[in-house]
Amino acid sequence: MKKILIALAMILSVQVAGAQVKSAADSKKAVESAEAASQNPKKAAKPATWIKLGDSYIDAYTSPFGNAWVGAGKQELMLIMGSEKPSSSETVELMGEPYTKEVYAEKNFYFNAAGVLSMIEVTKPVYDDALAKALDAYKKAYEVDVKHTKDKDVAAGIKNVASKYLDAGMTQYMLGNIKAANECFCSASAASETAPLSVLDTTATYNAGFTSWSLEDYGAAVTYFRKCVDAKYYEEGEVFAKLSDCYSKMGDKENAKNTLEEGFKAFPQSQSILIGLINFYIESGDDTDRLFALLDEAKKNEPNNASLYYVEGNIHNQLGDTEAAVAAYEEANKVDPNYEYGFIGIGILYYNQALDLQTKAQEELDDAKYMALVEDFETALKNAIDPFEKAYEISKNNEIKVNIAEYLKNIYYRFRDESADYQAEYEKYDEVVSTGNPL
Length: 439
Description:
four-stranded antiparallel beta sheet
């Protein structure tokens, strides 16, 4: 399954349709006027002066968006934007998905396949540091407001800054600019923790950690991931897996192990944590029985959880114990006959076994040994048929069924000349794969 490991965030700072947006020139004038007021000693003592300055910088930041907003339809924007037309248009691929990129003088629009505006990339900002200056202004408003009469307004302004940093980070990440994304996520996290807002934005904090980890800034990543753990925000176990990897890269093996074990207790089904544990015990030379002890603890808490037996099968498989792996997968099927992953585990095990035998056969020069390997290869392939067929039959997930059909199609293709039945099965699953519609 494909997984984007960054935490996806809803776009919070969208432009309201029909709202009046200042031009770049008007935005500059408003900022300059607010800046001048903040230099007046009498006015500078009032929180409202600084709030207005912060708001002016926010307006300047959004000015290049014009009347467009994320979530708008392409046809809708054509009507609203009037004479404003793109200078060019092209198809680009972002994160494996096609987008239509429209280029304007101060921004780029990215429309998804459905014609909905997904991202706005500002290429000519009114001020390069508008969000930072807005945050500084709100901080000053909080500082001079000794009676805290404007805390609600200041917090709202800071929250607006944080959400725009987060949106900008998501845009930069989608564009593949990890360093720029990291700077935005770190800024979003820091802004959210600024008084009087003083909250932990777990999405921004996790993404700051993830992008720091991607940039190999492990010290910073640990700081952000630890905040996530303290806030009980785990991103399905990924926080533990990434945090452990950071500790490992920093040479802190003890914390790396403890973090994985802590994560495994909470998320025994997490493949990232499981693989991390397996690799840790194999590389360290420690007793791998500890893995099964952890799993036994999980089984005591959830004796009817079939996925735990599937995980046990994966561990045995990774350690090269095929017989024990098959037994564990079968136990998953006994615990829950409708749990397709137990059958899938057995099918993939035999299928991969067949691929290994095929590689060995291709490298074998002795004819007798070659034929023996081919026979073993075909036996392993046929062993995969029954579990894959059972998984296909009981699964209610169309995407999973199509993936299973891909395996079965390849297997039956190998044996299609042996009988009409094999040929028919090949044609059946070939149709499922080509159409994407399970029969």
